């Protein structure tokens, strides 16, 4: 059974429409190129997920206290 109206998303890199399904092996990306560009941005730490600050970087914190 095929879905009549496939879900369409925008490629996070180039914003081209991408069918969310088996016909798009690199989803949510439109191509391997966009997928690798995104991976490179994460590897170079151009993209990151915000989180709690590292306690070891805080002023006044010590394991000896």
TrEMBL record:
Zn(2+) binds at residues 11, 14, 30, 34. SUPFAM superfamilies: Glucocorticoid receptor-like (DNA-binding domain). GO terms for molecular function: DNA topoisomerase type II (double strand cut, ATP-hydrolyzing) inhibitor activity; zinc ion binding. One of its GO terms (biological process) is regulation of DNA-templated transcription. Its cofactor is Zn(2+). Binds 1 zinc ion. It comes from the Bacteria. Keywords: Metal-binding, Zinc. Interacts with GyrB. HAMAP family: DNA_gyrase_inhibitor_YacG. This is DNA gyrase inhibitor YacG.
């Amino acid at each position: 059974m095929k879905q009549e109206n496939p879900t369409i998303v925008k490629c996070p890199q180039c914003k081209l429409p991408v069918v969310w399904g088996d016909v798009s092996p690199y989803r949510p990306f439109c191509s391997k190129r966009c997928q690798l560009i995104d991976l490179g941005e994460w590897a170079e730490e151009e993209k990151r997920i915000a989180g709690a600050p590292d306690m070891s970087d805080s002023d006044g914190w010590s394991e000896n206290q």
